[in-house]
Amino acid sequence: MATPILEVRDLVKTYTQGVFTKQETFRLEAAFSVAEPAVVGVMGPNGSGKTTMFELMTGSNRPTAGEVRVMGRNIHEVKYRERDRLAIHYHQSYQVRHFSKLKPSFLMQSAQSDYPIVHLFDEPQFNTQDGYIGFMLDFFAKLRADGRVVFLCLHPNEPFHLEIMQDICERYIFVQKGQLVLARDFTTLLEHEPVQDYLGELLPAAA
After folding, report:
1. Which of 22, 59, 121, 152 is 20 to 30 Å apart from 141, CA to CA?
2. How far apart are CA 39 and CA 118, in angstroms?
3. Domains along the sequence of the chain with CATH
4. Please, are residues 65 and 76 in contact by the beta-carbon 8 Å criterion?
5. What's the angle, vertex CA 8, arms to CA 44 and CA 11, rounded to 5?
6. Which of 37-41, 103-107, 170-174, 194-198 has the lowest mean pLDDT?
7. Which of 3-17, 115-129, 181-195 has the lowest mean pLDDT?
8. Local confidence band at 175 (pLDDT 50, 70, 90 cut-offs)
9. pTM of the model
10. For residues 140 and 118, what is the distance between their CA atoms, to the nearest angstrom?
11. Which residues make Cβ contacts (< 8 Å) with residue 58, sequence separation at least 6?
């Protein structure tokens, strides 16, 4: 059986406050896999855990439990300078997110890849001028055609944002309060009441 490109295995990240008596303030739980090249759409309210999930998937944040495997390799066991050869996180204006180093790199594994396998675009600023959107959609499609997995995370505030996700994404993840809803297509995504509440006035355009 072929190794999935991406496996998010029982991933948990918790944040706590307090010194002597710790109280959990946030908890993210994620479990899914992407077996083949694909473009995955991600949505959810601000503060729901989307960026935290992306940071965990690229190894820039350490999980409380679980693991992330890219082409069978646990990304948190890969040398720091090589993690972006497996998964890379572009945040908003496409700057690359960095990570803290807690273990000597020489004790870690090689990525065994020269170019990122998983590309995570975190709320990119789509410019409606000069064909920019078309350029970016062509770029996402090229990455997929080259055998990559693309995650496109948007916070829709215009109908065209939903049109982009519906046109290019093949499956969807909705994140709310650290919990994931997985949908195999756009129609299935819209069947979930939390998604309907989130989209609000944009729902008629989405439907």
Report:
1. 59
2. 10
3. 6-93+101-206 (3.40.50.300)
4. no
5. 75
6. 103-107
7. 115-129
8. very high
9. 0.89
10. 11
11. 75, 83, 84, 87, 88, 89, 97, 99, 118, 120
Terminal Cα distance for the chain, rounded: 38
Q: What is the mean pLDDT of residues 163-178?
A: 96
Q: Which SS3 state, helix, strand or coil, does residue 183 take? A: strand
Which residues fall within 8 angstroms of residue 193, CB to CB, at 6 or more apart? none
Counted residue by residue, the chain has a size of: 207
Q: Which tokens in the block code for residue 126?
A: 């789509």
Nearest to 113 by CA among 173, 73, 65: 73
Token pair belonging to 150: 């693309």
136 with 144: CB under 8 angstroms? Answer: no
